[in-house]
């Protein structure tokens, strides 16, 4: 692989790879290591990329596999994810901005409490906006299973949020 192609992949998808690794490992240090390994593996095994999926899907699949391997020997970590849940408005008071940030943080704290099978599909769908076929490809499961897990994840998350949310989202 030409190093310029590797650099382009890292520029284009580095944050997505790191964020997905972070959501799976729940550790900044591990996410750093995973991201580095992902791009090393991509560089070494570019010939295995057949173009049947997007480069992003391919990299996220590698990220998942490496993250799962790291996590097998990992200890429990705390993590906060931000974005992709609460739509942003134009102008906010400082108080409104704080409340929205807190609500978003709480949503992602609850997402991280979901079991891995639910958390994976929800993060890939909500944060990375992958389609059901792309998620199925990354996770190596049938599309019907993806759809079922996404429904289950949303239902569980909704229940968790109604039980634990100390303030309204609007």
From TrEMBL:
* Protein's UniProt keywords contain Transferase: no
**Keyword terms of this UniProt record:** DNA-binding, Sigma factor, Transcription, Transcription regulation
The biological process GO terms on file are: DNA-templated transcription initiation; response to stress
Where does the record place the RNA polymerase sigma-70 region domain?
9-73
State if DNA damage is listed as a keyword. Answer: no
Gene3D superfamilies cross-referenced by the UniProt entry? 1.10.1740.10, Winged helix-like DNA-binding domain superfamily/Winged helix DNA-binding domain (1.10.10.10)
Task: List the Pfam families.
Answer: Sigma70_r2, Sigma70_r4_2
User: Per the database record, which ranges form the RNA polymerase sigma factor 70 region 4 type domain?
Assistant: 105-157
The organism sits in which domain of life? Bacteria
Q: Which InterPro entries match?
A: RNA_pol_sigma-70-like (IPR039425), RNA_pol_sigma-70_dom (IPR014284), RNA_pol_sigma70_ECF_CS (IPR000838), RNA_pol_sigma70_r2 (IPR007627), RNA_pol_sigma70_r4_t2 (IPR013249), RNA_pol_sigma_r2 (IPR013325), RNA_pol_sigma_r3/r4-like (IPR013324), WH-like_DNA-bd_sf (IPR036388)
An MF annotation (GO) of this entry:
sigma factor activity
Family, as annotated: Belongs to the sigma-70 factor family. ECF subfamily.
The UniProt entry, under NCBIfam families, shows: sigma70-ECF (TIGR02937)
The protein here is known as RNA polymerase sigma factor
